[in-house]
Specification:
The chain starts with 7 loop residues before the first helix and ends with a helix. The protein has 426 residues and is of the alpha+beta class. Helix 3 packs across helix 4 and helix 7 packs across helix 8. The protein is globular. It contains eleven helices and 17 strands.
Amino acid sequence: MAPQSRDPTHLRQYFEYLAGSTLFMHALKTRSDLDVNLLAFGDDPGLAKDASHLKFLATKNPGLVPESLKGALSEYSLQRHRKRNAKALGLHATPLTAQSLVATGIIKVVIRDRSDDTSFKRGTLLVDHGNEDLVDSGNTALSVPVDESWYVIEPDESIIFINSNGLVSLAVLRGRCSQRPDLLTYVNDCKGVRPTHGGELIQFGWNAGPCHAHVFGLVNNLTNKRLSMTARQQKDSCALGILALSWNLLVASLPAEVSTSCIEAIDGAGLPSMTIKGNSSDSGYTLDLPNGPLCFLTAERAPSEGYMSQNYEFPIHTDQLYAPYAMNWVTLHSIVDPDQCQLHGDRSSGGNYVDVSLRVVVKCATDTVMSMQPKFKHGTTLAREGVCRQGTAINFSRHIKKAFDEAIAIEGNVKAMVTQLAEEKK
């Protein structure tokens, strides 16, 4: 029997047949591909050629579709759309090794060992050549690049630095979210683009409390006591989603050597995943995009410690981590006020990451993912006024792990402790 998709009676019978097919309804529930056998009308060819055609027929003829099939088909289409979004971002992809990334032909590799130069002192300001006017009188600053032995990574350059032992020292990859620019817009809008606002670094997830207390618990960034609990949870959920997206994008994009070593360190540390008050789950997140929510129901949440930054600058320093790398995603770098920025001559916008011991300057650019080794000296250059920079970061601070170890030695049960802290009233 040839398909007769325009016959209402035949269409109704077809929809009713599919709704009564246990095999077909199971395929919808499990988000399986709908092949011609599943779409068949008994022993005859189906009236729909594929899943998209079936959705089209059901949308055009809603009165003919049983409610059970209508609901299942709607959920199937939604989840498949979300899966395609995740695939477009590469979130389900197995991370490639540094060698495989370089083999794509769009990423360079440089073999370089770190310098033992001790003349670059902690606390020294960093400034790009041409921007020395940004250094206040009496302050000591290091102008970079220092000499021709330094490497400057241009804004459109993706590169991986490997030492003579074959280990990744620094990875800088550009345009990893280029297929979904709306996600970059969402991330930056949710964080709040405030071009004239001073530098800030806001922590999310778990921390060690005030320095004098050293108590493991959830960060409380919402100091406005007038906010209702619902408004607080909405804001927290937004940050949770952004940092989960950041983590999954970073893991999928950066060299497998980086991702694997960090995941192994996380597993070894035993710290709980990032969560928020009133939600002790360890997986799944939602991004409330303007055109509808984008949900990753089973995706991993970010590790315990994440940050959002805007116009943040820091001098030469080192950080003590329990993982070999830290990761970040630059989501915005924009000159919002050219007159205030005053770019002329050899001046630059600044705000560039500097790996001091590797002798590398990373020019800041929107949609850049990076992995670095913070136990070595690093910092950022001073930025000019009129420039807005934003980003997210995943870190693995030893002092937070220490606070967790001390807490779990008392509580004994990680799950019970996390649940109690997450459900605890403010």
